[in-house]
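re the bet — no i am not wrong, look at it urself. input seq straight from the record:
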Amino acid sequence: MQNELYIKRCIELAQKALGKTYPNPLVGSVIVHHNKIIGEGYHHKAGENHAEINAINSVKDKNLISESTIYVSLEPCAHYGKTPPCALKIKEVGFKKVVIGAMDSHDKVSGKGKKIIQDAGIEVVSGILEKECIELNKRFFTYHEKKRPYIILKWAESGNGFLDKEFKPYSISNSLVNQFVHQLRADEHAILVGTQTALNDNPSLTVRNVEGENPVRILIDFDLKVPGDFKIYNKEAKTLVFNSIKDGAENNIQFIKIEKENFLSDLMDTLYKEQIQSIIIEGGSFTLQQFIDANLWDEAIIIRNESLELENGTKAPKFDFTPNKIEKFRDNSVSFFELKNS
């Protein structure tokens, strides 16, 4: 039970950096000496110290380390990136024992970190709260195992299934839900809209209402119909524009040429190469329907204003799935869906 308790703490620590570590995973670490926590740390941001190093650095009396156990939610890395391998650091400082939540499926790690530590004669236990540790890094695991980002579909609809009023932007969700949506944007790596949504709503796709990083903006605009002075082209976030006309970069805007044929498959390949780990598909209806019809999604979030009835407008996508939970945000309901084995 002690192992589970400390790995649970590793998960809590790791979650503090949600949305800030891309393309790295979320990792937390705890150091325990005779049933007492003497050090804690988590990975704050790509390029900075990893969780294990932060935990080691936080220990006041380093003499206790040789008699201590280090807990980590994900297998310590075994490769040189922007920082040296954590597995070598663990070997160097000489822990008594290492307890790992989930093994890392990344081909540069995948058991190599654990082997370095075991070969140094240190006891290693792995697979503690493995399911929870995999859930913590569902984006990272999906990206490396399926070679595509983790995909979240999201839209807001009226009680009778319209996305807008008379085909013009209309505020469907309340202020509480809007804050939730901005937090969702801050947590995920990227956000995608199609031509029609960009033209109709002129969205900036940023996180104005919460603390956090702006997601990478992705615009699907085959004929480059969206004017350059629209908000999606401002300097607030990196923006990828998929189109059939040109390639090239201009400041924070990157134009990527793509054909309409095999569009979704090519899009996934390019986003994988761009190291985009997760993406919210925000619309419009046509774009969302393409992902739904291709069964290309992991989660869906549908916001519903039951008391709002609209007479005409864009119909919500056809989506015939059962939610695994529904939450109330005052007069709005938010339904959460998961597509298993996608």
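see?? The mean pLDDT is 94. told u. also The chain has ten helices and 15 strands. so pay up
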